[in-house]
Amino acid sequence: MGDVIGTTAGNAAGIVGLGFYVPKRVLTNFDLEKMVDTSDEWIRSRTGISERHIVADDETTADLAEKAARRALEDAGLTPDDIQLIIVATATPDYFFPSTAALLQDKLKCSCAAFDLEAACSGFVYALVTAQQFVASGAAQHVLVVGAEVMSRVTDWTDRNTCVLFGDGAGAAVVSRVPDGHGVLAFDLGSDGSGGNLLAAPTSASHLFLGTTFTAGKSGIAQPGGPVSKSYIAMDGKEVYRFAVNVMGMSALRALERGGIPPEKIDLFVPHQANVRIIDAAARRLGVGPEKVFVNVGKYGNTSAASIPIALCEARDEGRIKAGDYVVIVGFGAGLTWGSCAMRWV
Questions:
Q1: Is the pLDDT reported for residue 217 higher than 50?
Q2: Which of 17, 25, 163, 298 could serve as a FRET partner for 344 with CA atoms 20 to 30 Å apart?
Q3: Looking at the predicted structure, is the pLDDT value of residue 292 above 70?
C-alpha cells in the first residue's frame, strides 16, 4: 500500500473552466430488464441508478473527450492554442497506443504535450493533482484535464451484477493559475495493489502471461482457465463496496486535515458517482448533511474517470458551487486506488 498526501502552498492553481458530454442514447433500467434477470426496483434500491448513456457505434473515447474539452475551453475563455498540456484520465482508451490524449490533441489542433493517465475511477483526481503541479511549478500555464470513458465496451451485458452499473461519458476541466488561497489546497492519493484482483478488465494479451480468464468469484476474479477473448469488467462487488465505504471518507478527511479545513466548512462534497449507498456512507463519515452532497449517479451510472468532472460541471451549472466555496472531491477505483482534493472555488 502506498499513498501521497500533499499541500499546495505557493503558486495557486485550480479549475477555471468545466465542460461535459454524454452520448445521446439512454439505456434505462427497464431496458435492462429485457436483457438480463434484473428489475428497476432492484437496481435503484441497491445503486441509486435509473439510467445511463451509451455511445453510438461510431463514437470513441476521443470523440467524447473532444466534445467535453471544447466546452471546458469555451467556459474558461481559452482556445486550444492556449493549452500547454493535455492529460486524459481513462481506463478505456481507443488504443493501447497512441494515447487518447494524443488523439485529442490532434482533434483540437493545438500544439502541446499530451499523455494518458490510468487510475480507473480515481483517474480524474490523479490527473487534476498532476495538472495542478505542472501549473504551480510554472511548467505550464494552462492544462486541459479530461476524464473520458466508454465503459459499455468493456461491460459484459450478460452479467447482471456489473452491467447495471456503468455508463459512458466525458468531463473536462481547464487548470490554470488562480488567486492565492484558492484552487487545489490539499490532496490525498493512494493505492493498494494487493486488491488489484477485486476489480479488473484484462487486456487481450492477458492470457500470454497470466494464463487466466477473468470471472467474478468468492476467491477473487482471476480464475484458472483458457485464453482471454473479451476484455470485460469482472468485480468482487462485496469487497469493492467494503473498500470504498472505508476509503472515501478516510481520504477526504486526510485532505481536509492537510489543508487545515474543518469538515464543517465544506460547502459541497462531490464524490465519485458509483453507488448511492457508498456516497451516503462517505458523507456520514465526513459529517456532511445530504444538502451538501452532490449526487447524479441516477442519470449516468458509474462513468469511471468521467464521473467527478461531470458532477462538478452539473453542480456548478445548478448553482451548487459558487466563488469562495470549499469543495471536496474524492474517488476510488481499480488498482485499488483512491484520491481526494480539497479546493476553494474561484
A1: no
A2: 298
A3: yes
Query: Is 214's pLDDT higher than 80?
Result: no
Mutual angle of helices 123-137 and 307-317, in 10-degree steps = 70
Phi, psi of 5 (to 5 degrees): -115, 135
C-alpha cell, 289: 448533511
Strand order in the sheet with 183-191: 2-7, 183-191, 337-344, 326-333, 268-271
Distance CA 28, CA 43 (A): 10
**312 closest CA partner among 108, 64, 128, 131:** 128
d(CA 56, CA 8): 41
* Secondary structure class of 258 (helix, strand, coil): helix
Instruction: Report the half-sphere exposure of 132 (CA within 13 A, side-chain side).
Output: 26
Q: Which of 200, 185, 210 is nearest to 260 (CA)?
A: 185
Closest among 172, 185, 117 to 142, alpha carbons compared? 172
Domains and CATH numbers, the chain: 9-180 (3.40.47.10), 184-197+234-344 (3.40.47.10)
**Amino acid code (one letter) for 38:** T
**Residue bearing cell 461510431:** 58
CA gap 195, 79 in Å, rounded = 41
Against a cut of 0.90, is the pTM above it?
yes
Where in the sequence numbering do the catalytic residues fall?
Answer: 121, 272, 302
Burial class (CB in 10 A: 0-12, 13-18, 19+), 103: buried
- The secondary structure of residue 198, as a DSSP letter, is G
What does the angle CA 71 – CA 72 – CA 76 come to, to the nearest 5 degrees? 120
Closest CA to 173 of 325, 52, 346, 27: 346
